[in-house]
Fold these 4 entries.
Entry 1:
Amino acid sequence: MANDLTFKTIRELSALIGSGGVSPAEVAEHFLARLEELGPAYNSVVTVTRERAMETARRVEAQIVRGELSGPLQGVPWGAKDLLATSGGIPTTWGAEPFRDQRFDYDAAIVERLEAAGAPLAAKLAMIELAGGMGYNQPNASLTGPPRNPWNPSRWTGGSSSGSGAAVAAGLVPFAIGSETFGSILSPASSCGLSGLRPTYGRVSRRGAMALCWTLDKLGPLCLTADDCGIVLEAISGPDPKDTTTWQREFTYRDSFDLGRKFRIGVIRDVSEGAQDAVKSSFHAALSALSDVADVEEVRLPHMPYVEVTRTILMVESASAFEDFLADGGPQQLTAPEDHHAPYARTAILATDYVKALRLRGVIAREVDAAMSGFDAWAAPTSLTTATPIDQQFRRTTSGPGDVMGAIGNGCGLPSISVPSGFDPDGLPTGVQFMSRAYGENICLAIARAYQSRTDWHTRHPSNVSPPAA
């Protein structure tokens, strides 16, 4: 039974636990063993939280015996990107050498909510140092070393939720929590063949999470399926009086969603320009797979500085968030050489440019919302390339049509889900994303579920999940 647990979905694990086919302690032990054995080889784990996970699992077992059922996450282990505060002496490193021994005496809101749902925290997972906020341009920017992609250990997993992507793709945990400021959930989801959901800004409390950009940061799940993403989102979302940016309404996941008509999907003109051939082919095949339930139409956006606006906000807010760290020379202790100097350039951005970017973001948000009003979602390739080599710099696009969905989605705080859409000739996953209007998670989840019911990409997993060669 134990070997059969590795790539079970949340619903499948919940059914096994609920039927008595396996105990929460057995499930926790299975994944803890995988984390301990394989986590270091994939550079995906910072801390295995064995004691805490087993304590939660035993508590959940007692609840089940008493007939106290709390939902589908009861007894399902998970991993946290290591920017989420954890109490009990567990380090929270932010992926950065200067914070290797950092500890908090409280738990992040998302940790509290998942443990309340009965989900044992099994590990703190690797990430790009300071969530990539210092301007890195290669995979080694992490105190654990570059997380290796389980599909091919010579390739990277994407950033900055890199350990979260590796851990779920390798079957080390059934799901993980990542964060996104500009691509950090969707990128590893695409590179690792996972389903990753970036919620609407304010949908999930960020209390206890490292702040990089106050008006851009979002927390969300990386899972095996879109359905799993919906389950996790319901558990972690909702208002938090200690985080005034949270939306004051609860989210209820609708795992059955019938509009009574076909979905209307928009595709921004030239959105796949510059993409690898395999990425383009997978994207068009994904749209074709939905042809019986969706109508697709090209979208022409007004010419606006979408990427530049979002990146300006990101650079200024990250410099402000780490103002003291920069003043004290902290970047000199970071792993990536380019992170030693790049953040200082951000302090030279004029306040007038930041204010202008904020005002333009308001204009963009209105224009985009109007353009999206005739659609249920917009679709695009999640990334223009498959996973990059682990020993090479990656080309960071600063403008052009390929970044528009990311710039709009993050700048305007819109929800999007990436799901697997195929493979390139080297056997590396591709991804397609569906982005909806603000608070439209149930719609983009429904489209993703419809897609996954017509394809089997999400059921395919790396065949070699034993320790890779260094």
Note: The first strand starts at residue 45 and ends at 48.
Entry 2:
Amino acid sequence: MEPKAHQYTIRNVPARIHRALRAKAAVRGVSLNTLVLQVLEAEAGLVQPKANDDLDDLFGTWVQDEAVDRALAEQRVVDSRDWE
């Protein structure tokens, strides 16, 4: 028989952590409570981490950066002399 669940109170959570957790919960389509329970369960070593064999975890993580955009644009320039 599973023992009674416990209540936790976490104080002084910085706004940046709160925002990040809320955003991650929204992306996963779960409540903040469910997300925190999943993280606690994983950190406690009670679940096996999912073996990634694809790049799904990277989807939606692109950050707009002008320096990267410039570097990519430079790489996309075709020198017609290379094709003579």
Note: The longest helix spans residues 15-28.
Entry 3:
Amino acid sequence: MQFEITHLVADTEFVTARFTCSSRHTGTFLGIPATNKLVKYNGMVIHQVTNGRISKTWTEFDLFGLKAQLEAK
């Protein structure tokens, strides 16, 4: 997997990164057998920082778009 951070925003409590991920589908994922396709999708991660340490993390990514790429003929 290769991640490229496209946006990074931070304040005193949160660090948020938007990313693009590229990967090759080489194993079963979401019940879909390996296709060897190169897929690309976007996502975002938000870290809450408390006392200089990550205390909570939320991650979102385009699972629908990823699945559509894997299932495309």
Note: The chain has a mean pLDDT of 96.
Entry 4:
Amino acid sequence: MTIADMVSVIDAKVLCGEHRLDRTVHSAFCSDLMSDVLAFVNEKTVLITGIINPQVIRTAEMLDIRCMIFVRGKIPPEAVLSQARDLGITVLATADSAFTTCGKLYEAGLRGVAIQWPESEGGA
């Protein structure tokens, strides 16, 4: 799915990176816990979050995330958008909740990051 496809599916506003809407993403991950993002995200993943502080951009930079979607009508401050522009990250915003955003993208064919169920201690 391209970023342009996602913009259409979730009725998003493009906050920066308009010239990169032809990029392809292969999976999505939704979290407000950046520690979970660090643990589970891989390349060509779109990050869906309601966190709008600079930490989210630093996390995206570490994982080479090229697209982020801010949910619940949240718009990050200009300093965060400036960081995203400098790093080549496309930033979208939608008024929908994280749940609804994920559902719409899933229905359109985008899948989540594969996560392995942890082995139980003691071998249940």
Note: The helical segments are 3-10, 34-40, 54-63, 78-87, 98-107.
